Fold these 2 entries.
Entry 1:
Amino acid sequence: MKNKTPILFITAALSALLLGMFFGLFASLQYIFPDFLKEIIPFTKMRPFHTTTVISWIILAATGSIYFFITEVEKIAFRFPKLPKIHFIIFMFTGVGIYLSYIFDKMEGREYLAYTPILTIPILIGWVLFGINYFKTIRKKVKNWPVYYWMWGTGIVFMIYHLCEAHLWLIPSFRETFIKDITVQWKSYGSFVGSWNMLVYGIAIYLMSKVKNNINVARGKTTFFFYFLGLTNLMFGWAHHTYIIPTQIWIRYLAYGVSMTEWVVLFHIIYTWKKSLSPKIIEDNRVVYQFLVAADFWVFLNIILALLFSIPAINFFTHGTHITVAHSMGTTIGINTSILLAAMFFIVSKLKNEAFMFRKLKITYYAYNGFLLLFLCTLLYAGVIRGNWMYFTKDIPFSEMQNSLYYTYIAFFIFGIGLVWSILKIAIVLLKPLIKLFFNTSIKISE
Ligand code: HEM
């Protein structure tokens, strides 16, 4: 393997996952002890450190996987072979810039993009370089694109568009009108997530077709229907983020209608694929299979949760509570992280030339899913208590409500440790061979 940039992306992604989880753990300790590390990194900083780092995990892992699949599995040479390395260097320097901007309190950005907005420029340049290289290469070298090429291409284009949109507030005419400002802000975040979902779900379909050794998994009417539905979601599903804003009523109904559909189809695709596999194929690809099955399970649970709280009346009650956090972490860990871990196992077993033994990972795998379930349940419970306090009680001070959640936060922290422990074990299993292989120049990728 001559070009090791995909390995660099993947190693950086796994490191970001580990670091990001520790920030999350510290943030959860601050729920219990509000003064913990308050002087050095208060919660208002710890949270962006956590969210930015775990989102970087998703972006870096998805990008590295796509680079790897194209160059090492499909054996397609990029039109500009040096660009992936430049892309990586830009992202790493920007990552350092983002941390520095947090450390030095230059946090003029908003929500998930809290860093100083100028840093979005190199991020955009990275995506544009990726996009140019991707389209120039795939357009020429692949005929009759399977759906994952459409999904990756769409993800890249919309990522660029929504990153720009998320910064429209910098223009005074947007910033000065409150409703316009907040609507555009939340719309862009919803679609930003939709863009990385395109990359990650494309990876899931790619893995399914490789495990089954059948490209038809990535072709056909249902699969393309899923793609168009995902695209509709990306463009319109955001509106359930804006229920509390007095916008047009039809926007709410449209949003509710579309935002649930995509997951139902993803669930159906993974479920049908799972049922179509022979025991031999499952055994040969056991670890990748298990993580995709886990993703399917989390899709199912999240559909139920999201179906409920996308109903405007319930959404009103849950907004701004830990129920929203359970939804965000439930999807980014349960669905995105499970699919990306499946991709990491697929890639590392190609590099090692042998499959991972599920037997050795079984306890860790069930611990990962089990702790995640308990972790999310405590968040849901905390959300119900807070929602109840916000809308159905009077004269109870905030501090009293927070105190009543003391043991819930302790449980959240303990289950968080369990989750961190299981992901740490998985990451070590993946990182060890990656680091070894990085220094070995003569890696041959297995067919
Ligand atoms: C793969 C690992 C993880 C991912 C992808 C992830 C993702 C996220 C995301 C997207 C948010 C923003 C939620 C929102 O704005 O609605 C968040 C917030 C948070 N996460 Fe995580 N998380 C991970 C692991 C953890 C762990 C292990 C803990 C701690 C035990 C943790 C604790 C927190 C806390 C305390 C918040 C802030 C919630 C608030 O605003 O009150 N996370 N996480």
Note: The CA atoms of residues 94 and 169 lie 21 Å apart.
Entry 2:
Amino acid sequence: MALKRRIFFSSKSIWLGFACAVSVSCASTGESSFREVAVEPDPPHECGFCERLNEPSEPFQIYGDTYYVGTAMISSVLIASDDALVLVNGGMTQTAQQIADNIKELGFSLADLKLIVNTHAHFDHAGGIAALARATGAKVAASARGAEALEQGRPTEDDPQRGLVENVFPPVPEVQIIADGATVSAGEIELTAHYTPAHTPGSVAWTWRSCEDEGCLDIVFADSFSTRSAPEFRFTGGADYQGRIETFRNAIQTVAALPCDILLTPSPLSFGVKEKLAARSENPDTNPFIDSGACAAYAEKAEAGLEKRIAEEQTAQ
Ligand SMILES: [Zn+2]
């Protein structure tokens, strides 16, 4: 199974990936490597579509030290250096074990997880963070508003989805705030936070560079720009929300302007994981995840989605 999965990799990576599966020397090599840590999951999140969201996915290499370790419907991404692992997003509460298993299947040790960052604090991307941080001692980092939501285990007062009853998750006791434009590091891995307040007030696009022999690329894990909200919420309405549309548009433009060779998003559907894996399977010498136009295209779709939402709110008035 492992070999079958790794034929998706570029030819050089096939062997690196395979070697990592049988040797500790090329995975994280700190003293903690392959010390087993157990995840004690929080109670599973209950919702009508949760089972579908948590449908398992094989982990796979995206590029260089960047790997997909999420479910078939919710993205979590691992960045792996010789001295640390970093995770972006933690799925739902019941996804924590799946992420841990995927990390192990790639040949890494969960004990080496040093940092977890979050693009936005909703139940489907932040639910597993508390259990993974507890198991590993990993530091958790987010934007200022993201940290507020993570520490209280529910969206902030001004979050469009605040009123949705399902949107709660296990609180994360201690979250480090990373300022807009600032960096956070674990070992050799360095990520930059770009605040993109839109889908939530605390939304962040995280960027880093990943390298292979062929060169280094700019990776962007942009947040969702979905305008899904609680029924009573209006992006266009109320004194509390003045400037909200402009803030949303600016957030979209922030992502459009980022150096971007590979786009990742909280939903694997939004960056075409299934199609790209199929294309890579057909031609293993190519990497369809590399697409320098992906961030601009994502921003264009987000703009269209926002305009549609504005029109709907105006019609409903
Ligand atoms: Zn969300």
Note: The pocket of zinc ion is lined by residues 120, 122, 199, 224 (CB under 6 Å).
